[in-house]
Amino acid sequence: MVSQIRRDLLAAIGAGTSLALSDGGERDEIDEDDDDLTDNDGDERPFDERIDDVLDRLTVEEKASLLHQYQPPIDRVGLDAFRTGTEALHGVAWLGEATVFPQAIGLGSTWNPALLERVGDAVGDEVRAKHEASAGGVGRNVWAPTVDPLRDPRWGRNEEGYAEDPLLSGELATAYTDGLTGDHPTYHKTAPILKHFLGYNNETDRTTTNAEIPPRLLHDYYLPFFRPPIEAGSAVGVMASYNLVNGRPMTVSPLLDEAVREWAPDGTAIMNVSDAWAPANLTGEQEYFDSDERARAAAVLAGLDSFTEFGADSSTTVDVILGAFEAGYLGENDLDTAVGHVLTVRALLGEFLEPAADPYAALSADDIGRPEHRTLAREAARDGTVLLKNDGSTPVLPLSTDDTVAVVGPLSDRVFDDWYSGTPPYRITLREGVRDRFGAEQIHSAVGVDRIALRERSSGALVSAGVGKGGGGLGLQETDAPSVQSFELVQWTADSWTLRATANGRYVTVEDEQLINAADQPAGWDVVGEAFEFVSVDGGTALRHRRSDRFVAVDDGTLRASAENPAAAAVFDLEVRTAGIEAAADAARAADAAVVMVGTHPLMGGRETRDREDLALPPAQRELVERVSDVQSRTAVVLQSSYPVHLNEVEARVSSILWTSHAGQETGRALTDVLVGDVSPGGRLTQTWPRSADRLPDVTEYNIAETGMTYRYGQDDPLYAFGHGLSYSTFAYDDLRITPKRPLSPGGTATVSVRVTNTGSVDADEVVQVYTRQHRSRTLQPERVLRGFERVHLAPGERTTVAVEIDFEAFSFWDVTRRKRVVERATHAVFVGSSSDDIRAEGSIRVDGETIPPRDLSDATRAVDADDWSWADIELLDRTRAAGTVVGMTDGSWLSFANVDLRDEPTEATVEVAREDPGTTTVELRRGSPSGPVLGRTTVPSTGDRYEYEDHAMSLHNAPGTDRELYVVSRGECRLSTIELA
Description:
With 982 residues, the chain is α+β, with helices and mostly antiparallel strands. Residues 1-10 and 16-42 have low confidence and may be disordered. Residues 766-836 form the Fibronectin type III-like domain.
């Protein structure tokens, strides 16, 4: 917990004052000849003793230098250079060739923690190998995994998370971090940091979004995604997210200390880091502090230990931290605390070891992409594949290897990288995987997209491209030369297309305004440089380059993205040289079956910095599926995406649909394994697939109980439910047993067991899922909560018993009336099945918890702990810049407290309120409803500052009774902090 002195410091910073600190001066000058602290002499002192020695020898300036992402060497105390932040979400990213595993959402879809631990182990090996091969240039602190909940599929970074459920995500994340850290009893192979803490599920305005999360959901939903890997000791900290939560930027949230460090086992190092450039937002877009010194000090005092800003140049950060120290906003003990966290993690990574004693020093460049990692990548891609649909008396899947197969679609011959991907050593496309399995003579293929030529209308000349590997500037040519004037046109969203030149197989991009066919694949930050929009102009077409927001013009025969509007743009006529959809239909017609691979590009439509507006399959791809299925009744769709896709039209036309994430280098082989039935698909969805984005609330609405999001709160009529996934086999569930028969008591464990039998004809995996629902409660409970799961492999006729244990405390929830976790006395329905909506067996568990007593408001009660509120009319805000949450009230807004005990006949109520603006607000206390009888009211004048609170009393009339529901109603704007009855 944050000490009182640190709370005082935070309050002082927020108020813009300075504190004189008893330990605020420089330490004595350090003897430059002091011995370093490495284990050259077999030093076996505990980490904390060695780190205390280092801290005693460091100057304040040196300590400040260790609070930046790039930390310099300090030779005289034995510290090497160190940097935080190697990206390792599903393989080593951005550092050259490395094994590329499926996206995190694909890994999550395996529902297989043991597999994720093996993947994490492989990734950890490759991080360490790159570290050793680069002489330490590659950092061993990894920023992975991302454990943000997949609350809304429109989130641009949906592919980075595992699940919409905290238990599933927690088990998978813990397994992955266990693999990353290695199996040595003392030292870590890598040091994982969890991203992004907390309430971060939208990209648009991500630095200024206020995620409003009421206490119950904070403790029961959002925090549990991060807790398991920290509690297990396998993650060493969190990355503070960009956004605000309840009015306070996460970069300065006290939860960094009060939650994260509270979870960690005793003696476990926790090093919290900022996201890139987030500290600068505190005085920038967020306008939360009026000086950088106060901002950085507040972050350190809140529990942040490492600043990620200004790239490799740490000078600005160091200067600001020293300025905060000199101003009295930080004491040297505060620097020692943060630096101690950093050094402890460095010690876990072998900082004080001789190289020969480092258990991971033998890893080398030979361990990057080694054969067993390639095999594991294929297994992971295969196990995360989900069979969404396989209807009919004779389903299309699995395919017979005796058949001829048409393999078509814009994703059938491409394997794309996402933003956090490494460079794969090779890429196996679906077409290649099927060809290698069936033989080239049995394959018919077509991309299924048009090949076009672009004729500039005013001159009649055709656009031509360069033939070399590096391409060339696109220009006009009067003569027809198809080899350099043909472009493959792919639609990725309603308004994003790519042009790939057949002259050299490269994508058209823009360099210094000039169009050039040089890109290996669409890539780049924010909006990819290879995306174009086709805009109708006078019966022709103008091209808008989406990244630059400029239209393509012709300048001296060269195509340049330089025009500001369509009127200044060149107008082209599109001439179709090859009708792609018809070519795909011809291929399908000539084959015994067709596989159409469609989906989304991982960097278009939605990605980091941009949320997606819809979930629809692009119109051209939908038309491709329709046309192929018209001519070939045995058509299967392979859908590749980073998020749930709106499939209603497609689902109605085909009998078989297989889903995969962007699954890395082994995509084609893994999909082929599933398509032909070498393995039965065993993946399961980890988030609810809505029928369309139109059914979803605003992406910034974080109160999932209020908006009915995720399977927990009954997302209405989903296309596919959480946990959904079919098999080539069938499974029977029977012999459900729940023990103990008596009510479960504190400290006890209930066991739910069920017998599962493979009643089909093929070996297959089944994911057995156990859910519960509390029947009666004082408060709103989720409709279902996942309590456990197990993926089992069974041969035909084989049976096994799956047992899930549920501890008494697992039934606890956050009680806002007493601000603690409680277990109510209640009966819980038990549902066991193959998904959240495919229940095969039901039972019940009685839990001998407590009855929550009537609410006592005789002590000051936080407004944010109300039972209900007019959610659309209020805002959850920061009580101060340092700590606390209040309710921002508007005219006519209300909040309510249920089951209030009024038997003591209170005669007065006091509300603590702040009002920044001039004028007054009236606060009323009513009974029964927002328009019920008035028990009392008080007038609140301006307090002059949003953080200046005053108590205002009101006399009460006709207040006695039991189990009353009281409503606090505001007639104007104010910040309501507490209410107290006397």
